[in-house]
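Hi R.,

Here's the chain you asked about this morning:
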Amino acid sequence: VSRRLLLRTIEEERQKDRVQRLFGQYVSGVVSERILERAAESRGERVEVVVLFCDLRGFSTFAEGRDPAEVVERLNAYFEGMVEAIESEGGVIDKFIGDAVMAVFGGLITLDSPCDAAVRAALKMREALDGLNQEWTREGLERFENGIGLHVGVVLQGPFGSANRKEFTAIGDAVNTAARLEAATKLHDTPILMTHEVYRRLHKAEKGRFRALGEVTVKGKQELLVVYGLRPAHDDD
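And the predicted structure, written out as tokens:
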């Protein structure tokens, strides 16, 4: 009996290792572990997180008429930089939506200050993009530009979908708001836009990089949002 139990345990560990290695190509390690831990659960978990939503500007125009292989190569190089910046600050990639990236801070990984972590990640993402653009410019390639929206709130996080196919993701108003803020970066001429709820929780060092931009309305929300944008490098106010 003990031998059978030992062999079964070994086989289960092997199977788990195979799944984790496979998942590791598609989702972060912490997500794959949570999926394995809660494989039988269908309920989500209510948690407060900072949602980061990032989207490339004008990517559809860039991709039009180009060889798909070239488009994928450029997009993968871009994603590498964005993911590294996010994960270096404890963020978890929730999903890729075309050329957009959604990540959450807090929830799956405990962070001392999810808001500070998300803002530092956003700044690193901009630095990574600048580095890529410098390299692409030297090669005679077009530059990329992106926008980043940040909001904090309670979401339902877990596996959602049909009986045959599920996706581990976060759902809630905070997700929609972050996405709307990303879209609003174009209107406010700033690469990073956050709500007051995020700004007020930042430490002084991170707050100093941003300035108030007033109130805005975003699609799907009735109330006005007080927002803050990245302070220009030449702004000494």
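Residues 22 and 32 are 9 Å apart (CA to CA).

Let me know if you need anything else.
M.
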